[in-house]
Amino acid sequence: SLTDSPVILRILQNWVPRVSHYFDKEHYTYAGHQIVIQESIEYFGAVVWPGALALSQYLESNQEQFNLKDKKVLEIGAGTGLVSIVACILGAYVTATDLPEVLENLSYNISRNTQNTNMHKPEVRKLVWGEGLNEDFPVSTHHYDFILATDVVYHHAALDSLLATMEYFCKPGTVLLWANKFRFSTDYEFLEKLSSIFNTTILAEFPESNVKLLKATAREN
After folding, report:
1. In sequence order, what E strands does the chain have?
2. Which residues, in sequence order, are CB contacts of 61 under 8 Å at separation 6+?
3. What are the distances in angstroms from CA 37 to CA 16, 50, 156, 167, 194?
4. Which residues does residue 26 pair with via DSSP β-bridges, in sequence order?
5. What is one Gene Ontology biological process annotated in the Swiss-Prot or TrEMBL record (predicted)?
6. What is the CATH number of domain 7-218?
7. Distance in angstroms (rounded) separating the CA atoms of residues 128 and 136
8. Exposure of 175 by Cβ count < 10 A (0-12 exposed, 13-18 middle, 19+ buried)?
């Protein structure tokens, strides 16, 4: 339930400042690995948002509660790929998805940060929320242990499609972890809709960043 007390955290400043203006490279350290992320100012999806930092930090710190080792993980709206890279470092079989125009930078970051390691090789795929789900990700062969999503809710027209996509992938036994900066009434309205479909708990709040981290699971019929 939403009444459980979430843990109150702050996002740790574990990166070094950017230098260039056009393509920014941000350096992070999670789970003992240095991660270098190339950002692009051309697309929303190509910048590291606070929800990604919050979820990456939480996954690193709560490996006993959420053990990703050898689990199948799908990230929707993967953006720069930071969360997918962290999940990969933590041992998951990761599929990182986003819109076509984001995939080149996403693929670059993921391959750069996961090559020459003994991690499971991540997959990068196009996923337009609410479109072609049955064709591209048939339920019979695509079951995920975890669905990860960060800062996917903001002012855009695809919120219903996003919710439908979460519902499609979040089957019984799947855990959805969603971290988001809460700015607008639409963010809270989305949370209400999510809570009407799933069992929802606020795991953590990062008040300085206005980020909430939620866990959602399918309701038993």
Report:
1. 7-8, 15-16, 23-30, 33-40, 72-75, 93-98, 123-126, 146-150, 175-181, 198-206, 211-218
2. none
3. 11, 14, 25, 30, 30
4. 37
5. methylation
6. 3.40.50.150
7. 10
8. middle
What are residue 179's DSSP bridge partners?
A: 150, 213
pLDDT tens-digit map of 23-51: 457 888 898 898 999 887 666 666 788 99
Query: What is residue 12's three-state secondary structure?
Result: coil
Give pLDDT tens digits for 160-214: 999 999 999 999 999 999 999 999 999 999 999 999 999 999 999 999 999 999 9
| Residue 22 predicted with pLDDT over 50 | no
Looking at the DSSP bridge assignments, the partners of residue 25 are 38
Strand pairing report for 23-30 and 33-40: antiparallel
Domain boundaries, the chain: 7-218
Q: Supply the DSSP string of 102-113, one letter for each residue.
A: GHHHHHHHHHHH
Task: Return the amino acid letter for 209.
Answer: S
